[in-house]
Amino acid sequence: MQSDILNTEVTTIDGDKTTLEGYKGNVLLIVNVASKCGLTPQYEQLENIQKAWEKDGFTVLGFPCNQFLGQEPGSEEEIKTFCSTTYGVTFPMFSKIDVNGEDRHPLYAKLIAAAPKAVAPEGSGFYERMASKGRAPLYPDDILWNFEKFLIGRDGQVVQRFSPDMTPEDPIVMESIKLALAK
Fold first, then answer.
1. Where is the active site (predicted)?
2. Which of 1, 52, 130, 168 has its C-alpha lying 20 to 30 A from 87's C-alpha?
């Protein structure tokens, strides 16, 4: 199932249907994003790593999602404007999708099947805090919250999944990206 991640149909934030085939040979970081989340400042780090490594064949792909406390309520145009004016986002953004439940986007079904468990910072307690507020995922492999990240290798295979509280510039994430770029 992993091998067809890149040929999964997606819709750009401008409404154009496409696949991720154009990114074949690149290392990707696929992230479900939101504009009104406590983790939204991660956009800055995502843009930083995009700029640092794009010349090496690295691309961040942002997929807005409104499933977590309605933290991405805007239209695609509002999301695009927010990202570019607030964080200077230049990486590709896509239309709003569901990452959990019956309407889970096929891309996320494939990503989760390939990497059912996310790496989290040691002793972070993020999952426990979410569970204590009644926000634990319905199923163990569900996306926990906004800004969960999937690292995809040049071969289109999932390399690693990172929890929402593991920032893009966390040393573990950075090292994983460097290793994927070296292949």
1. 37
2. 130
Q: Which domains does the chain have, with CATH numbers?
A: 2-182 (3.40.30.10)
Which DSSP letter does residue 149 get? E
> In this structure, what DSSP letter does residue 72 have?
-
35 closest CA partner among 2, 65, 15: 65
The helix (run of H) or strand (run of E) holding residue 32 is strand 27-33
In eight-state DSSP terms, residue 2 is G
Structure tokens at 43: 């956009």
pLDDT, one tens digit for every residue, the chain (183 residues): 445 899 999 999 999 999 999 999 999 999 999 999 999 999 999 999 999 999 999 999 999 999 999 999 999 999 999 999 999 999 999 999 999 999 999 999 999 999 999 998 888 888 888 888 888 788 889 999 999 999 999 999 999 999 999 999 999 999 999 999 999
Q: Which of 20, 29, 34, 37 is catalytic?
A: 37
d(CA 43, CA 110): 24
- The 8-class DSSP code of residue 93 comes to B
